[in-house]
TrEMBL record:
Residues 140-174, 432-455, 673-763, 1003-1047 are annotated as: Disordered. Its EC number is 3.4.19.12. It comes from Exaiptasia diaphana (Tropical sea anemone). GO terms for cellular component: cytosol; nucleus. PROSITE patterns: UBIQUITIN_2 (PS50053), USP_2 (PS00973), USP_3 (PS50235). It is found in: Nucleus. This is ubiquitinyl hydrolase 1. InterPro entries: DUSP-like_sf (IPR035927), Papain-like_cys_pep_sf (IPR038765), Pep_USP48 (IPR033841), Peptidase_C19 (IPR050164), Peptidase_C19_UCH (IPR001394), Ubiquitin-like_dom (IPR000626), Ubiquitin-like_domsf (IPR029071), Ubl_USP48 (IPR044743).
Length: 1137
């Protein structure tokens, strides 16, 4: 609960750097060996004036004497008592005077709480339940209670029940005792209601726990049930339980309070005879669909129904079927009229319940005399009712939401809103305007105009009207049984004891906080150092921790991170420390401990000298850099002096290299990385020579041997055109023109692919100045692209930092050996270029993949093609496209297309279903003759098609097909197709206007597995592609462009169709039952089947048709409801378990 620190817009970094500059200003004019104690004190900023108390909004990091804004503001100011504790106010749990009591929501039991509050406020029902007696346990109760006791008023607590009090332990606040009162003798629903009503009437708590009643009914606290069904079942159960009571006022209370009568009347149109069936009711169920007011709902309930046609009525008087009228006629109205507005209805289209969110208007005063028949038993003078309760369901779904009740206290004529534990008084007037707010993201419904004396709601599901002439039992005359008084009194006593313990703990915490505040104030006043007084250095962050009230256990003082290599305070760490008095430091180390203590003698002169040397070096470096940049743009004038060669990378990085040289000569004083380091055996590293030698090792140099500015490839033999007599490739003997064999050295040329980034690599690897001018023979490189001339004046400034750097005047000769090698490489590049241009011209169609032979072309009945490995084809195309950087293929390797028996592994009759299109391509005989004359090859493979007179095609291969190996390959391929992971499929939403067959045809054409004729920018690979269906699917999927209304899904073969529908529900917001998927025109209907068994393969397209559900139900709530069968109150105490 500490108060947040204030800050200004100005960051601390700028001020810190400014004060550091001032503290070291003397270093620019002072030699390191002439440093005095005064200079060292300035570096440590000892003489800086302390800031006035309270003058800084943020702490001055640059001033070790500033003790402001460390967190002291809290301790020095006036602190409110409630700051020193985090305990809840126990009085907030106490029932306010003349206020009602709430009910705890156990998860999804808010619908039960609303009815309990409603029935409690019916004083006649409450009084009758207080007079209920458990006939089975009367004898036991009389023996346990003994002689009758004099009733005590409920505001006088009985003796304290110490065994029920919850004692605090381990400085933790005592837990509030449970508001749930349990008794083993309470096993009946009426006994539970008695106890709950007694608590609601006399408890000292703000709310009570109805858990015993919920458990006795067997209700699931995590599942929200139908509130209207609960009301009906509970009333029926309660009436049945009370039926055995000898007291008639108790036995008939349900019927007398809520019971009414109506008759079903069927009147014959022919003879006027009436058939009447009497029925009793506790509530009227009113349909609200299509109605906007309560009167309309009642009229529909009582309206006449015509019975004619096939629905004629058999009249006993006429002894034949006759037209008739059927209607309901109310005979008697109860004192308390419950009107159920049927908001939750069953939707036949979706198969689920839905909520009707339409507004219904209802009056404060309801007159029912106009709805009574003239011959009704009810006196019309007793047909005027006042609104006394409105039960509401907040939410748009029938499967979720929240229940609240608005109930009028009839004695005080005041409305209250009962929302579980919270109760809100409504200032004598019912207001429902804020209760009908729409869910977030839902378009707000327009609220209809409401006439005076009426209300309108889209959430009200039950209205309770009480007869104006109703003789309810006054609150003061309600008598509570003595045993209930004792139980509630015990609970109140336990509750009061908890409040006392909480208050005691709160006072203890306040006193402890005030004592701590006084101690901190006393020590804080000791912190400032007086003039000429000894002092100590303490980590600033530790001081913040000490002043942080949220940190209960303060850690020991750890100054180890402040030490320099000499075991003293590092000058660069002054901004992390504060200077405090020795007296305060003694108190800190005695109370909290720590190590090491940095006293007045912790100033390190060695580190001050080292930093002074660095400052002077950087100042000279900046001055020389400014001069070099100003003169390096101008061409050296040979009339003024000599010119020198310098590497471009070296000139660009000379400041970094100079810093490395300086650090090698004078190691930089660095702060230890570990926070646990100690000054024991800490010495400066004297192996500077070894460090220099390791960093400047010439073994890591990158040599250049370029004679031109063009990118180079690896060396090729000059007799490439002449060729060799024989060649080898993967230990296979090759045939072909010996004049076209590649040089063995040619394989190294691929290493030059990244030559465009040579300059960046040089800058990263360059360690010694001007080493980028050296070739592998330690001579001047021939290439002019990596060096430039500078004037003698600039060279002298550079050589000051690099006195061992290689020196090359303007007329220094280049390396002759490198010049010869460069010329050879240039010549080899020209040969490669000539070969690439020539082959591209001769084999133009093969290179661009145009006009490729089609083995299955019906216009060519008898044809024969050669087979060429795709692995070679991709390398060859890559060489022709990028011959400066990619090596020429060494040979045509068709061995991968043959099995171990040296037979062909693919069957042309399958038209690529065995993955042949991934492994090889068909080429013309003329193309084979050209390419085989230029590259050695291992095997010649041909495929021939012959067409018989009956137009039957026969295919033959040379070598022949190996049936066993081909069958094994097909089996492996089938397995890999059926079992896949992380594959992509497409789902496209269609309507009746789309043609599925046309969509499928276009999709297959688009994703056909043929190489793109013009796409020559794909990445070539030197490794043979695997014959794997996952590769095929990925290739197809990546080349497919998604269409409108289409989504792609990453799936596994073991997922079910239902899993896919659940994923699609997120994209299209449509329930799985409204989704109809098909594959190639075949409907997919088995939701439990896996994708593998349904034939769904990677890269395929599913068609989706949607049925839009009606009623505006939320898919997520319908899904939650559909996961388990709806059981209602089956298995609960409401239905007898």
């Amino acid at each position: 609960m500490a108060r947040g620190r204030t800050s200004t817009g100005k960051g601390p970094g700028k001020g810190t750097r400014l004060h550091k500059t001032v503290a070291w200003l003397w270093a620019e004019t002072t030699e390191p060996h002439k440093i005095t104690q005064k200079n060292a004190d300035s570096a440590y900023r000892i003489g800086m004036a302390p800031c006035d108390k309270g003058s800084c909004r943020i702490n001055c990091k640059s001033n070790p004497n500033c003790l402001n804004a460390l967190g002291e503001k809290l301790w020095l100011g006036e602190v409110q008592d409630n700051y020193w504790h985090t305990l809840q106010d126990p009085e907030s749990e106490r029932r306010k005077k003349n206020e009602f009591v709430g009910l705890k929501n156990l998860g999804a039991t808010c619908y039960v709480n609303t009815f309990l509050q409603l029935w409690f406020h019916n004083t006649s029902l409450r009084s009758a339940l207080y007079h209920w007696r458990n006939l089975d346990f009367d004898d036991q109760q009389s023996s346990s209670h003994g002689t009758p006791k004099e009733e005590k008023p409920m505001d006088e607590s009985t003796a304290e029940v110490k065994e029920n009090a919850v004692k605090p332990s381990n400085n933790l606040p005592p837990l509030m005792p449970s508001s749930c009162i349990s008794d083993d003798n309470i096993t009946n629903i009426c006994a539970h209601l008695q106890l709950i009503f007694a608590q609601l009437q006399y408890t000292s708590r703000r709310y009570i726990d109805p858990t015993p009643l919920i458990h006795s009914l067997g209700l699931d606290t995590a599942q929200q049930q139908d509130a209207q069904e609960f009301s009906k079942l509970f009333m029926s159960l309660l009436e049945s339980t009370l039926s055995a009571q000898p007291n008639v006022e108790v036995r008939d209370v349900i019927q007398k309070q809520f019971g009414g009568e109506y008759v079903y009347v069927t009147k014959c149109d022919n003879c006027g005879n009436k058939s009447m069936t009497l029925s009793q009711f506790f509530e009227l169920d009113l349909n609200i669909q299509g109605h906007s007011s309560l009167s309309q709902c009642i009229k529909e309930f009582l309206k006449e129904e015509e019975l004619n046609g096939d629905n004629q009525y058999f009249c006993m008087a006429c002894n034949s079927k006759q037209n008739a009228k059927r209607y309901i006629e109310i005979q008697a109205l109860p004192p308390v009229l419950n009107l159920q507005l049927l908001r939750f209805v069953f939707d036949r289209k979706t198969g689920y319940k839905k909520k009707l969110n339409s507004h219904v208007q209802f009056p404060d005063v309801l007159s029912l005399d106009g709805f009574l028949r003239n011959d009704a038993k009810q006196d019309t003078s007793d047909a005027v009712y006042d609104l006394t309760a409105v039960l509401m369901h907040q939410g748009t779904s029938a499967y979720s939401g929240h229940y609240v009740a608005h109930i009028r206290d009839t004695e005080a004529n005041t409305w209250y809103k009962f929302n579980d534990e919270d109760i809100e008084k409504m200032n004598n007037k019912l207001k429902l305007s804020g209760e009908d707010e729409s869910d977030p993201g839902e378009k707000p419904a327009k609220r209809p105009k409401c006439s005076k004396g009426s209300h309108t709601s889209r959430n009200a599901y039950m209205l309770v009207y009480t007869r104006r002439t109703n003789d309810a039992v006054p609150e003061a005359k309600i008598e509570i049984p003595e045993h209930l008084q004792e139980m509630v009194a015990k609970d109140n006593s336990t509750f009061e004891q908890w409040i006392d313990e909480m208050n005691k703990m709160k006072n203890d915490m306040i006193n402890k906080g005030k004592d701590l505040q006084a101690s901190v104030q006393s020590i804080y006043q000791m912190l400032p150092v007086k003039p000429k007084e000894d002092y100590e250095w303490v980590l600033t962050e530790w001081l913040r921790t000490w002043l942080n009230d949220r940190v209960e256990k303060k850690p020991p003082i750890d100054n180890s991170s402040l030490l320099c290599p000499h075991g003293k305070l590092h000058p660069e760490k002054v901004h992390n420390v504060k200077r405090i008095s020795v007296k305060a430091a003694d108190l800190f180390f005695d109370q909290f401990g720590g190590f090491p203590r940095l006293k007045s003698d912790s100033i390190c002169l060695q580190c001050v000298k080292s930093i002074c040397r660095q400052i002077r070096f950087k100042a000279k470096l900046a001055e020389d850099d400014k001069l070099i940049k100003a003169n390096s743009k101008n061409k050296p004038d040979s009339r003024i002096g000599r010119s020198y060669w310098v590497g471009k990378t070296s000139l660009h990085s000379w400041k970094r290299l100079a810093t490395i040289e300086e650090e090698a000569k004078n190691p930089v004083v660095k702060v230890p990385l570990s926070h646990n380091c100690t000054p024991v055996n800490r010495q400066s590293n004297g192996n500077t020579a070894d460090t220099k030698n390791s960093r400047l090792s010439t073994e890591s140099r990158k040599r250049k041997s370029m004679s031109t500015d063009e990118p180079t490839t690896s060396k090729q033999e000059s007799n490439l055109a002449a060729g060799l007599e024989n060649g080898t490739c993967a230990e296979v003997s090759f045939k072909g023109s010996p004049s076209q064999m590649d040089s063995p050295n040619q394989e190294d040329s691929s290493k030059q692919n990244d030559s465009d980034n040579d300059d960046d690599d040089d800058e990263e690897e360059l360690i010694k100045f001007n080493e980028d001018l050296l070739c592998v023979h330690n001579n001047l490189v021939p290439s002019l692209s990596c060096r430039r001339l500078i004037s003698e004046s600039i060279w002298k400034r550079l050589i000051y930092y690099f006195n061992e750097a290689p020196t090359f005047p303007e007329n220094h000769p280049v390396c002759q050996q490198c010049q010869v090698e460069s010329e050879d490489e240039r010549r080899n590049l020209e040969i490669n270029k000539t070969v690439a241009v020539e082959e591209r011209s001769i084999l133009n169609s093969l290179y661009y993949n145009k006009h490729r032979p089609n083995l299955y072309d019906k216009d060519n009945p008898n044809i024969s093609f050669h087979v060429l490995s795709n692995s070679f084809l991709e390398k060859w195309r890559s060489f022709l496209r990028r011959h400066h950087f990619v090596s020429r293929p060494k040979c045509i390797a068709n061995q991968s297309l043959l099995c171990p028996h040296e037979k062909f592994m693919f069957n042309p009759e399958l038209k690529g279903e065995d993955g042949s299109h991934e492994e090889y391509s068909y080429i013309l005989r003329e193309e084979w003759d050209v390419i085989s004359s230029r590259y050695p090859y291992d095997h010649v493979i041909t495929v021939t098609k012959e067409t018989t007179d009956g137009d039957e095609c026969r295919f033959s291969t040379s070598p022949e097909i190996c049936e066993n190996c081909h069958a094994s390959r097909m089996l492996e391929r089938a397995r890999s197709i059926e079992h896949y992971r992380h594959a992509t499929i497409f789902v496209r939403k269609i309507t009746d206007e789309h043609d599925p067959e046309e969509i499928q045809r276009r999709f297959e054409e688009e994703t056909a597995d043929t190489d793109s004729p013009q796409d020559l920018d794909y990445n070539s690979s030197d490794t043979r592609k695997q014959s794997n269906t996952s590769d095929v699917s990925k290739r197809r999927s990546s080349r497919h462009r998604k269409q409108r209304g289409e989504v792609d899904l990453i799936v596994n073969s073991n997922q079910t169709l239902r899993d896919i529908k659940l994923e699609l529900m997120k994209s299209f917001s449509v329930m799985p039952m409204d989704q109809h998927l098909s594959l190639k025109g075949i409907p997919l209907s088995d939701d439990a089947a896996t994708l593998s068994t349904l034939g769904v393969r990677p890269g395929c397209l599913l068609m989706l048709k949607l049925d839009q559900p009606q009623g505006g139900s939320h898919p997520e709530t319908l899904l939650a409801a559909s996961t388990t069968p709806e059981k209602g109150f089956q298995g609960t105490g409401l239905l007898g378990h």
